[in-house]
UniProtKB/TrEMBL annotation:
InterPro entries membership: Aldo-Keto_reductase, NAD(P)_OxRdtase_dom_sf, NADP_OxRdtase_dom
Taxonomic lineage of the native organism: Bacteria, Bacillati, Actinomycetota, Actinomycetes, Micromonosporales
Pfam families: Aldo_ket_red
Record's keyword terms, sorted: Oxidoreductase
Enzyme's top EC category: oxidoreductase
Residue intervals of the NADP-dependent oxidoreductase domain: 17-312
GO molecular function, one term: oxidoreductase activity
Keyword Oxidoreductase: yes
Protein name per Swiss-Prot or TrEMBL: Aldo/keto reductase
Superkingdom: Bacteria
EC number: 1.1.1.-
Length: 333
């Protein structure tokens, strides 16, 4: 039976490990719609009930893929999507510019577009993906609260905000989840955000829980990344940081080998052990990796193994930022 967790104190119950769908449409090389569709269907078949997408993943493509592939099984899963990252495309479908817009006006338009693409009349968990610093968070959350009153959204969430923003938002309307990057490779949420979530009863949904692929152990050089893989722009994958970060992955692998698990499974088991309110959503577009990730929910770590995994990647040991400067400018607002 698939392990379950609740998102926040009063949110929906979902599989302990969810499925992040971004890579099916965006950022990680060429799309494979047929393979991605098979992965979505297989996820439902093996008990995944938490699917995470956003309107910016392929600028509509990912939501459309989910809608046409598993829209007819809508009652079997909790569906999360996001708004506020906008993009302008040219006639060839290439991105011309991107910006953040968390205004109430755009939230209303974005929601209707997402509902249409996802072929549904409700979003279970609707996130503000990023925050415009010139838009009061109170205004954005008030608009999102209206979506709940209208029955178009069940629960609302925020992504990559500061603890202060979370508190201000939660004072307007209960926030069910905060989505943050969190893994052995990215630990900053342990400084203040995780404690704030626990104080307020907010679930922490952990994206990139295997370090954007680092903790799979399958990336051995920058050349392993496709030419159009966005990680080529991420400092952690830069040539000058590669050797230091590879050494950390080897340390994780040593513990994983003793467990009879893959490094990715060990990393996910470590994250699950951080608390029942932490819900990882590893992303993949391939069935074998999906099945590998889901098996991590059955991996029980002893206190010693947990300690050794934590020690394998001490906070601050990872070389390079998690985004390029433009991306870093949009987080922790």
């Amino acid at each position: 039976m698939t392990a379950k967790r609740r998102i926040g104190n009063n949110g929906p119950e979902v599989s302990a490990i969810g499925l992040g769908c971004m890579g099916m449409s965006f950022a990680y090389g060429q799309r494979d719609d047929e393979g991605s569709a098979a992965t979505l269907r297989r996820a439902l078949d093996i008990g995944v009930t938490h699917f995470d997408t956003a309107d910016m993943y392929g600028y509509g493509h990912n939501e459309e893929l989910i809608g046409r592939t598993i829209g007819d099984r809508r009652d079997e899963y909790v569906l999360a999507t996001k708004f506020a990252n906008r993009g302008e495309l040219d006639a060839q479908g290439d991105l011309v510019r991107r910006w953040v817009d968390s205004s109430p006006q755009w939230a209303r338009e974005a929601l209707e577009d997402s509902l249409r693409r996802l072929r549904t009349d409700r979003i279970d968990l609707y996130y503000m993906h990023r925050r415009s610093p010139d838009v009061p968070i109170e205004d954005t959350v008030a608009a999102m609260a209206d979506f709940v009153k209208q029955g178009k959204v069940r629960f609302i969430g925020l992504s990559e905000v500061s603890p202060a923003t979370l508190r201000a938002a939660h004072a307007v309307f209960p926030i069910t989840a905060v989505q943050m990057e969190y893994s052995l490779f990215t630990r900053f949420v342990e400084d203040e955000m995780l404690a704030t979530c626990r104080e307020l009863g907010v679930g922490l949904v952990a994206y990139s829980p295997v370090g954007r692929g680092w903790l799979t152990g399958k990336i051995t050089s920058p050349a392993d990344l496709a030419a159009d893989d966005f990680r080529r722009t991420v400092p952690r994958f830069a040539e000058e940081n590669f050797a230091q970060n590879m050494a950390l992955v080897r340390a994780v692998r040593e513990v994983a080998d003793e467990l009879g698990a893959t490094p990715a499974q060990a990393a996910l088991a470590w994250l699950l052990a951080q608390g029942d309110d932490v819900l990882p959503i590893p992303g993949t577009k391939r069935v074998p990796y999906l099945e590998e990730n889901m098996a991590a929910a059955d991996l029980v770590l002893t206190p010693d193994q947990l300690h050794r995994l934590t020690a394998a990647v001490p906070p601050g040991a990872v070389a390079g930022e998690r985004y390029a400067p433009a991306g870093m400018s949009t987080v922790n607002r």
